[in-house]
Design brief:
about 190 residues; alpha+beta; 3-methyladenine DNA Glycosylase, Chain A; 4 helices; about 15% helix; globular; DNA-binding
Length: about 190
DNA sequence: CCCTAGATTTACT
DNA sequence: GTAAATCTAGGGC
């Protein structure tokens, strides 16, 4: 399956968040391939988005969001969880990323069940910190180039276009008026 | 099914 | 100091 090119991510963050629905994340750990289709995303921008990590200045944590598009931004939160984002923004914007909130498991379900210590396929990747655990993504994968890395990529999907549901983003207190959470039905 | 509480570390108010 | 782009277990219905 074709890996998405850099230009895919060089557009408005909100546009890319919608476009990523139905695309596929492919992770390789040793000889095991783990993959899933993206079913839920959220856009986080820069100056106009008080809920974004990059709303203020560059810090050690958020610096990837100010860099090249198509790079992974993995951050640690709530004392125990990792979340996986992809840097995306148009040329005029300094910072932005798309949070991957849910995927539908495809290849490597056995490995995911082991990683999650959980048998129920429904509960494998239906949350931002669940899918990082299932795909073995930690801060080690922060800053990888998703357009060329051998162990973590985003490729075209096989799904037909489906209706997109837009909602307020989850778990934030600011900018709840922006409908920048996007999902497709499973 | 729903709800609430507790876990546990980082980053920056 | 404290809030955080969250999850799970445990109890009630």
């Amino acid at each position: 399956m074709n890996t998405l090119p850099r230009e895919f991510y060089l557009r408005d963050t909100v546009t890319v968040a919608k476009e990523l629905l139905g695309k596929r994340i492919v992770r390789k750990v040793g000889r095991t391939e783990i993959s899933g289709t993206i079913t839920e995303t959220e856009a986080y921008r820069h100056r106009d988005d008080p809920a974004s990590h990059a709303h203020r200045n560059v810090t050690e944590r958020n610096k990837v969001m100010f860099g090249k598009v198509g790079i992974s931004y993995v951050y640690f939160t709530y004392g125990m969880h990792y979340c996986f984002n992809i840097v995306a923004k148009n040329k005029k914007t300094r910072a932005g990323a798309v949070l991957i909130r849910a995927v539908r498991p495809e290849k490597g379900i056995r490995a995911m069940q082991k990683n999650r210590r959980q048998d129920s396929v429904r509960n494998l990747t239906n949350g931002p910190a669940k899918l990082t655990q299932a795909l073995q993504i930690t801060k080690e994968q922060n800053g990888l180039d998703l357009t060329s890395d051998s162990k973590l990529r985003v490729t075209e999907g096989t799904d037909r276009k489906k209706a997109i549901i837009a909602s307020p983003r989850i778990g934030i207190r600011e900018a709840t008026d922006k409908l920048w959470n996007f999902k497709i039905l499973i």
